[in-house]
Amino acid sequence: MCEKHKQPRPGATLDNQAAHENDHRLWSRRDFLSASGLVGAGGLLLGKLPVRAFQPSPLMAALANGPNDRILVLIRLDGGNDGLNTIIERENPFYYNIRPNIAVPESNLWALSNEYGMPLATNALQPMWEDGMMKVIFNVGYPEPNYSHFRSYDIIASASDSEEVVNSGWMGRFLDNEYAAFLDAPPTVPPALQIGVQSNLVFKSDSANMALAVSSPEEFYQIAQTGLLYDTSSLGNSPRELELAYVRQTANAAFRYAQTIKVAYSKGKNQVDYPTDNYLAEQMAIVARLIKGNLGTRVFMVEIGGFDTHAEQLDRHPLLLNRLATAVKAFYEDLAMGDDNLQDKVLGMTFSEFGRTIYENGSQGTDHGWGTPMMLFGGGIGNGFTGQYQDLSNPDPYEDPEFSMDFRDIYATILQDWMGNNPDLVNFVMGQQQTTLTGLVPAIAPVIGDNNKCALLGHNPHPGVPGVIEIKYAMMQNGPVRVQLLDQAGHVLRTLQNEYKDMGSYILNFRPSDWYVAPGNYRYRLQAGGQVFQRDLKI
């Protein structure tokens, strides 16, 4: 490492070995706790890999039964990917001065353009780039970055600010806030699938539980086929029994996915040879097979680890990038086979918890740093660059160059343009108004995620008035609106609003004491535009 480059960040470098190892222990502990025991509903093995089916959700129920056949595949680069050695600014003397031992030489690059290139280890992606199936987003990050794997991933997964702890994921909130009435009518199609053994905050919502791990597909199918489901009929209305009933109902719903998964997996066929000794390729082969088998699931997540390259990066990092590139290439070639060319319907998106330092360290590696690129893959998305590359001309000896693209703007763009949802819903899910990126992905038209009628955005405590709850909803067309408060059994207790509303976004300020409502667990229901939405509410 450069003598000037001292970074007082606990756990960010191997110089503080105890803090670094503790960071990994925290990560492992959280994953173990969330992945063990009854933590939700439904897991099985496909091929040799575990597959995790996520909590039934309103959006995914709607998508599984609606006209939107677009699919999103999240590709997690676990450990913090080094952006400067992934997308290289060609013949930049500052890059080679900062990294005298680990910089990728010009002779070892293939050209994205006259200005940028990628290591030859990724040349499997070159045909995709040339065919307009790949985009690069430079220097993605967030303000005041955290350099702990555990904490930074939680920020990336929850889409929170760096100082804010949010216990739900961006996709989980999205799934839970649209088509809320579907929670009581789960689909027979898995709403989302993660290939791997660890549960993931990305998909967690306030009301969602994750997968129940089952050791083999045979056991999973046997449970579903023999009807060995959890009993809920004998449970009463005590808080404990209501919680137990919810967990059991969640598990029961996921068991019913077994047959649809089995049918899709048997029906779908891999028609290309995937690279061997490549865990990511194994995962993507399963995803391709389920997509081609018409499973109907709209969101998948796969991952590849090993990107925490503190040492010997020149040997380790190209191997990881090669596994990524060859897996993605095989996946999209597979989707192109058969009567239905599915490449245009499937968007792949890489993400990582942070980048690496622009300076190399004394172990010929890099430490935890700020921005990192994201890559998008898919037919018809075009090619090109978004954002600003890191400025290496006059670097701060203590800090990395500031990020240029906020990851939440990218999420918002995917939710709005690729998934096809109204900006009001997207901004509510993201927690603030985000800037969407025009032209990043082909925008679906018309917006269909909310059927262009209405959307229940959710609720939160009033930020300035104690004892008041804000209930938020949006109307995409004029019409009557009714908001009612219900008990846990579904009986109407109060009608909070019943009037005609013009198109727009609204906040209903609900003070329980004004309505003589005692503390407890309730539900509230929105009826508008011929739709019914319902959510739990604790007062």
How are the secondary structure elements laid out?
Blueprint: H1 17-35, E1 43-46, E2 49-53, H2 58-64, E3 71-77, E4 88-89, H3 93-98, E5 109-111, E6 116-119, H4 126-130, E7 133-141, H5 149-158, H6 170-177, E8 192-195, H7 217-226, H8 239-255, H9 257-267, H10 279-292, E9 299-304, H11 313-336, E10 346-351, E11 355-356, E12 368-369, E13 372-377, E14 382-386, E15 405-406, H12 407-418, H13 423-430, E16 454-461, E17 469-475, E18 479-486, E19 492-501, E20 504-510, E21 521-528, E22 531-538
Parallel strand pairs: 3-9, 3-10, 7-14, 7-15, 8-9
Antiparallel strand pairs: 1-2, 2-8, 4-6, 5-6, 7-13, 10-13, 11-12, 16-17, 17-20, 18-19, 18-21, 21-22
Helix pairs in contact: 6-13, 7-9, 9-10, 10-11, 12-13
Can you offer a commentary on this structure?
It contains 13 helices and 22 strands. Residues 1-8, 25-43, 55-67, 181-186 and 208-225 have low confidence and may be disordered. The termini are far apart. It is an alpha+beta fold and 539 residues long. It is globular, with a radius of gyration of 24 Å. Strands 1, 2, 3, 7, 8, 9, 10, 13, 14 and 15 form a 10-stranded mixed β-sheet that branches. It has a 4-stranded antiparallel β-sheet with strand order 19-18-21-22, with no helix packed on it.
